[in-house]
Amino acid sequence: MGTGNDARENLGIILQARMGSSRLPGKILKKIGNKPLLGHIFFRLAFLKHQAMVVLATTSSPKDDVVERYCRSKNIHCFRGNEENVLERYYFCAKEYGFGSIIRLTADNPFLDIEELDNLIELYYRNGLDYASSCRSLPVGAGAEIFTFDALEKSYFNGKAAHHLEHVDEYIMENIKQFHTDSLKVNGDKNRPDIRLTVDTEADYETACFIVNNALDEYITTQDAIRLISDFAA
What we know:
The chain contains 9 helices and 9 strands. By secondary structure, it is α/β, with parallel strands linked by helices. Strands 5-4-1-6-8-7-9 form a 7-stranded mixed beta sheet, with helices on both faces. Strand 4 (53-59), helix 2 and strand 5 (77-81) form a beta-alpha-beta unit. Helix 8 packs across helix 9. The longest helix is centred in the middle third of the chain and has 13 residues, at 114-126. The chain starts with 10 loop residues before the first strand and ends with a helix.
């Protein structure tokens, strides 16, 4: 069992992003409506009620120079690290910025549910957790994870398998009894893990474009996105 957290200090959001997606290269800067995919994520994060520093963690590969330039143009903190070892990238990013707790986001999710992210943060602090997730109930791409720096550090020093390095949460998931964890329960109309609100393929991208182009408001709720996906599929 982990020790949990006891202070609402130094909360950081680390958004992992790189241009070298194997299925949809360059997707993070592809336009969805009038903004690139990254732009949608930062637009939504501005509505978060909890205070948190946002850092985009990209790779040291030259092909990600364009990502750093994008961050500079938008006054966004940018960290560059290991391309293949995402766990290492997270660890050194969190260490450099002195984060006590870290929210993990990935740059293929333009419809992140901010309301439930605030609820997730509350759950995490209220129960003194080492790790919490809202991914199990929400549509794919709408959820998030939060964990202590201690949990991340334990993962970094003990997670040696290839999948541990590629996926930041894998060591925690495989050693769940070492950590104090919980999952956020969400309202019934959002409880749709069968729905995809992520952008991983060309088909996902076309769906995202349909949602943005047909939404009534710039801020698209999870319920609106689910309804529009139904329209798109009809």
